[in-house]
Q: What sequence folds into this?
């Protein structure tokens, strides 16, 4: 069969379209336009009092301001569990609220401004000294998750404080004064400890392992009205988008379906 010029051109245009969509990336939400910007995921039995727990996030920070919050399950004060910016050079602080001494880990400067990056935060209060928290990261230009090094490693002591009365807030603190500056594309929470890095990598792809209690893709509202954030984990932890605006800036997607 002879392929006409128009057919060839049509095939070429379809190929270009597929490549553009394969590598252009997805959407996200932009935080930081106001200090009260946040997504209120609320509380519920599937996301309350998790120990062990794994938090995974895909973020694009633009500015590093001390104490700006990425993820918070706390009251308006300092009690609760959180991941926030430490200092102004891209370090992270991770805190879990305990009865006697809080678990407190601070990483080195692992974040890059104006880059998409994956973060994995794993917590288990039963781990050995200096190992209650592990933080892993990967840039869009990198190939592998890498564990951070830490400037502070306080395992903490005493019973875990209940967080059932605290809302899970993405991109801000319970006091609504510490909005993250940049874009957030995805947040996933598991009610168990990720076994190894290879499993952590899989969670950033289309395969979701057991124990997934929150799976939210920001900027994608699905069948809900704008302003309502769907939860694809099946646990109905829908959130309310309050302030952040949609952005076409999203992480590049490989033609094979995985993230960058």
A:
């Amino acid at each position: 069969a002879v392929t006409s010029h128009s057919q060839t051109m049509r095939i070429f245009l379809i190929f270009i379209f597929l490549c553009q969509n394969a590598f252009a990336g997805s959407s996200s939400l932009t935080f930081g336009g106001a200090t009260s910007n946040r997504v209120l995921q609320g509380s519920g039995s599937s996301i309350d009092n998790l120990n062990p727990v794994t938090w995974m996030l895909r973020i694009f920070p633009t500015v590093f301001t001390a104490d700006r919050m990425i993820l918070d399950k706390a009251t308006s004060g300092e009690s609760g569990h959180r991941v926030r910016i430490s200092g102004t050079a891209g370090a992270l602080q991770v805190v879990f609220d305990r009865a006697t001494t809080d678990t407190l880990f601070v990483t080195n400067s692992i974040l890059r401004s104006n880059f998409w990056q994956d973060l994995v935060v794993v917590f288990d209060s039963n781990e050995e000294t200096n190992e209650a928290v592990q933080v892993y990261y990967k840039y869009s230009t990198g190939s592998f998750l890498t564990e951070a090094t830490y400037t502070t490693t306080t395992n903490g002591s005493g019973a875990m404080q209940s967080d059932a009365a605290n809302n899970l807030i993405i991109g801000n603190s319970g006091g609504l004064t510490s909005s993250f500056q940049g874009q957030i594309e995805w947040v996933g929470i598991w009610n168990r400890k990720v076994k190894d890095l290879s499993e952590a990598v899989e969670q950033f792809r289309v395969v979701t392992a057991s124990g997934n209690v929150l799976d939210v893709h920001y900027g994608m509202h699905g069948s809900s009205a704008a302003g309502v954030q769907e939860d694809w984990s099946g646990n109905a932890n829908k959130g309310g988008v309050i302030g952040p605006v949609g952005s076409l800036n999203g992480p590049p997607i490989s033609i094979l379906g995985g993230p960058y």
